[in-house]
Design brief:
This protein is mainly beta. It has two helices and twelve strands; from the N terminus they run ββββββββββββαα. It has a single domain, classed as Alpha-Beta Barrel (Tubby Protein, Chain A), CATH 3.20.90.
Length: 169
């Protein structure tokens, strides 16, 4: 299964639409305008909140708590790496590594690919294609992609204003 994620460019907060491979709307994501740290809420097509992503405020490197259907799924942590972006999803212990330009990511667990992320070039706003072989991991994959997008935003790379990972990348 594939999901296509598109950021709405002219918005006061983060806004994303998510479509399936048939072009049908699946989810919408909305950031909070006023909050301590970044917060993102994802709703299904019926308006039910299915994912919540919250930035940890006291952390040297970017950290985001991820909740899927009101259950703790894990914490995305940006790691210090050379040339290639790298994240770990604590909880399910997924490793997330990107290519040099941070456009493509592979998510693995014990050397088994869980899903892949491709960022599209030359688009207004961020656009991603997520290829998920196991449809039961749809919400988890979507949550990880949106958390990575939050961690990569300019000016949001660290909770206390210092991101050692950017020094080494």
């Amino acid at each position: 299964m594939k999901l296509y994620i598109k950021e709405k460019v002219f918005s006061w907060t983060d806004k994303f639409t998510v479509k399936d491979e048939y072009g049908e709307d699946r989810y919408t994501a909305q950031g909070e305008l006023i909050s301590l740290g970044k917060k993102l809420h994802v709703y299904d097509r019926f308006g039910e909140e299915v994912i919540t992503i919250r930035q940890k405020l006291v952390s040297l490197l970017p950290r985001y708590d991820i909740h899927v259907r009101d259950r703790d799924f894990g914490q995305l942590v940006k790691k210090i790496s050379f040339l290639r972006p790298k994240y770990v999803l604590e909880g399910p212990r997924w490793e997330i590594s990107g290519n040099f330009l941070a456009l493509d990511f592979t998510v693995t667990q014990a050397d088994r690919q869980i899903f892949s992320i491709s960022r599209e070039w030359m688009t207004w706003g961020d656009s991603y294609c997520v290829d998920i072989p196991d449809p039961s991991l749809e919400l988890q994959a979507l949550a990880v992609v949106l958390a990575i997008d939050c961690a990569n935003e300019t000016g949001d790379n660290a909770s206390i204003g210092l991101d050692i990972a950017d020094i080494f990348d």
